[in-house]
Amino acid sequence: MYQARNRLLLTALLLLHTSTGFAERVDRDKPLHLSADQVLMDDARQISTFTGNVQLTQGTMLIRGDKIVVMQDKDGFKRGTAYGNTASFRQKREGLDEYVEGYGERIEYDTRAETVDFYVQARVKRNLDEVRGEHITYSAKTEIFQVSGSGAGSGNAPPRRVHAVLQPKPKEGVTKQPVPDALPIKSSGTLSPAE
């Protein structure tokens, strides 16, 4: 049983090991590490399901969730979906000593398109800038965020709105100081609905 489990985990790691655009470019050649309580692999359909406190890392990229489902297409590209009370994503920005962090109840990443989508009470932070909405798309290629609130509100409730905190660029030679009214980011807990 122990050997079968080790073979299954090794197969899962080999299945998932491809380049990804979310981590620094140098991270592409680094090994992919997955840890979970359980894994179910369907080789015929090229789908692997990891459950129970799942952590996926490759170089500086880190994705955490209660469950992560990874599908591989015929060209070897992966689409993964992380689920959790609050699933999280973190990656080092290319060539900078900064990270992009994101949270949502569902996070979808696509290695072909080099995009990450955050759903349901989504928030993404880059340095001191932060955006919140019901759906956020982040392109690792272009570093562009697209944020939307929910559709029409339920019943007579108004639609949810998008919120953003964007810091001014620092002047040359001036060190950035945190702004006291910036929204704090925490890696766990529930978000209150956007106003």
Task: Chart the SSEs and their pairings.
Layout: H1 2-16, E1 32-35, E2 38-42, E3 47-58, E4 61-72, E5 78-92, E6 99-110, E7 115-126, E8 129-139, E9 144-148, E10 163-165
Account of the protein in words:
- With 195 residues, the chain is mainly beta.
- It has one domain: Lipopolysaccharide (LPS) transport protein A like domain (lipopolysaccharide transport protein A fold).
- The chain contains one helix and ten strands; from the N terminus they run αββββββββββ.
- Strands 1, 2, 3, 4, 5, 6, 7, 8, 9 and 10 form a ten-stranded antiparallel β-sheet that branches.
- A hairpin with a 4-residue loop joins β6 and β7.
- The protein starts with a helix and ends in a 30-residue tail after the last strand.
In short:
The protein is mostly beta strands and 195 residues long. The protein is 8% helix and 47% strand. It has one domain (2-165): Lipopolysaccharide (LPS) transport protein A like domain (lipopolysaccharide transport protein A fold), CATH 2.60.450.10.
**What is the H/E order?**
HEEEEEEEEEE
Roughly what percent helix?
Answer: under 10%
CATH topology, anyone? Answer: lipopolysaccharide transport protein A fold
Number of domains: 1
Percent in strands: over 45%
CATH superfamily grouping: Lipopolysaccharide (LPS) transport protein A like domain
- Report, as a whole number of angstroms, the end-to-end distance: 51 Å
